[in-house]
Design brief:
The complex is a heterodimer of chains A (177) and B (203). By secondary structure, chain A is an all-alpha fold. Chain A contains nine helices and no strands. The two termini of chain A are 19 Å apart. Classes of the chains: A mainly alpha (177), B mainly alpha (203).
């Protein structure tokens, strides 16, 4: 399964890079090189435009993490989560997930090292990682690229989704494993 | 976003003052600023690559064909977007890339979708309902195979790294459904209706 997944994900991008231009040139007679350049130009400007938005959000998140405020939050939440049986080791990961993708992966490897990837916590954090996203990063980049400042209900709806993902991961793991 | 951003900084400074971690916080601010720029620059390569490829697919009519296939779903998700608008093509590709776990491709396509949605926006500074729904969809992770975490499990010596796939698909289905339905629900609340740049009803 693992070999198949790895092989499949290695094949996807090269096949797309070959298949799409091939179809375009053979069936639709499109000048594929010129088309590619036109599209690629846009990519450059979007990348530059998001810089200020990304700086703003990543600085705030970086400061928050470095201050140790996360530990306080965890200490506050621990009585509630231990009451429902949510493993305390998974709590930092659940809280960090919407803020930082690389930070979450770091914490997940810690859990794998200390408890093993096949322990209940190991499986739970794997499922949490697979069912949630780096919401704040996505919001900053997506809205930043078009300079939208008033994001209305995008954040509450997204965070509710993340919260559901964590609860669902816990319930599903408790039932399955 | 204003409140969230300021609260993160406020909590950081207050906590640092009490715990004496101010030097770490100061260092983190500069480090994060640098890594934000590195991240954006790093994105440019993937952006150019996938938007170039997308343009070929667009010129060949492939994107439009995919969007047509998803039309019933899109009509419900994004009722404000006209049925042949290029935004729907970009959204379809972004969702496809997300499902396959191709994060490098999903972001450029998602940003392209946002630009297309912005062309329909009457107030360039305020998010439309379609944008909020799209963001909710994107930030709830629709990926079918969590490749990164499976790789990490394999590297940490798991006996069966991919055993979490079914559980992850079930959990992500829940999170996506709740995110999308709550985006729809919030959009119908008077408070958010008032701030809708298209004024609630199509003019």
């Amino acid at each position: 399964m693992k070999e198949f997944l790895n092989a499949a994900s290695n094949w996807v991008v090269p096949l797309l890079l070959l298949g799409i231009p091939l179809y375009a040139i053979a069936v639709k007679k499109i000048k594929v090189y010129e088309s590619f350049i036109e599209g690629a130009k846009e990519g450059f400007w979007i990348g530059v435009k998001i810089i200020p938005y990304l700086v703003a959000i990543l600085v705030a998140i970086g400061m928050f993490r470095a201050s140790g405020a996360m530990d306080l939050l965890i200490a506050l939440l621990r009585p509630i989560t231990s009451w429902v049986g949510f493993p305390p080791e998974a709590l930092p990961i659940a809280l960090l997930r919407p803020l930082s993708g690389s930070g979450t992966l770091g914490l997940i490897s810690d859990v794998f090292q200390n408890f093993g990837p096949d322990s209940f916590v190991g499986r739970l954090v794997s499922v949490i990682e697979g069912s949630t996203e780096t919401t704040f990063y996505v919001l900053a980049v997506y809205f930043g690229s078009i300079a939208v400042r008033k994001t209305r209900h995008a954040l509450p709806a997204s965070l509710l989704g993340d919260f559901t993902g964590i609860i669902a991961a816990f319930i599903i793991c408790s039932l399955l494993f | 976003m204003n409140i969230v951003w300021l609260s993160l900084i406020l909590l950081a400074v207050l906590t640092a003052a009490f715990r004496g971690t101010m030097s770490e916080v100061s260092k983190a601010a500069f480090q994060s600023a640098t890594s934000a720029v590195e991240l954006s620059i790093g994105l440019i390569g993937a952006m150019a690559l996938f938007l170039g490829l997308m343009r070929i697919a667009q010129d060949a009519g492939l994107v439009q064909a995919l969007a047509k296939l998803l039309r019933p779903l899109f009509r419900w998700l994004f009722p404000e977007v006209p049925k042949d608008h290029p935004a729907l093509g970009a959204i379809a590709l972004n969702m496809g890339a997300n499902m396959l776990g191709l994060g490098n491709a999903a972001t450029p396509l998602g940003l392209k979708a946002m630009q297309e949605l912005q062309t329909l926006n009457k107030d360039q500074e305020t998010a439309t309902n379609a944008m909020c729904t799209f963001l909710a969809l994107n930030s709830s992770s629709v990926q079918l195979i969590p490749a990164v975490v499976i790789g990490l499990r394999a590297a940490s010596g798991s006996k069966n790294p991919s055993e979490i796939i079914i559980a992850a698909i079930l959990a992500t289905t829940c999170s996506t459904l709740v995110a999308v339905f709550s985006a729809k629900f919030f959009a119908s609340l008077p408070y958010f209706k008032k701030s809708n740049p298209s004024g609630g009803d199509p003019k």
